[in-house]
Amino acid sequence: MSRLQDKLAETSRLKHGIDNTIQDLKQSYREGEAGDRTMEFLLSQRSLKGYYGTLRQLGRIDDSYDIAAGVASNAWGFHVVEDRATATAALQLLKEHNIGRATMMVISEIEKEMGARSKNAFTAPTPKCKRLFDLIQPTNEKFKSVFYQAVRDTLVVDTLVAAREVAFGGVDKKRYRVVTLKGELVEPSGSITGGGATPERRQAQGGPLPARQAGHQGGNAAAAGGAGAGGRGRAGTAAAPTPNVGAGE
Question: Which one of 65, 95, 128, 134 has the minimum C-beta count within 10 Å?
């Protein structure tokens, strides 16, 4: 009887996990669809100059880092624009046509803050890890600072054990933000995010960067638009925001 109860309990746990995964997939699909509709609309506006699409469409990364990239940032569904004027115009169009909400990453503003930092030499604290930013190949060099804004100096390792070792002070005693290939995230503050089912591959969920192409929200983003929810990223930790450009409801 006890063995049967154990099996029933295990079956119930498995069902609960599957149900949660299904709900996550449905939500991700809805978010991805909304973001794609917003991007397609903005790209179709010939009067809108300096709009490039969502961040996930502007870079590539090897499949093996796909899950880690998706967990490391929630900026993949954000929309990349050249300057504040373009951001304002794009948000106004979304509002006028009631297309949806969106967050804009403004290259000219991000470049002022992150341009030099994205070019600084970086040495990983141990051979066990790689910097996620260095693994992303932008489709154009002008997007490098935007990708750096999204992931900063987040490191990637194979296992959670290695992530804890690196994050909480290795040889140099410095703390790092570290994500594993399975999507476990260790913050310098000491928090660890993980457990449950392994996050689905981001391209299957409409997450960062297309399949076989590759990924922390940054500031210098403008968020607004009409009703709905467009261009929203998945899991990640947001950096402290800097001044935004926005349009009202």
Answer: 134
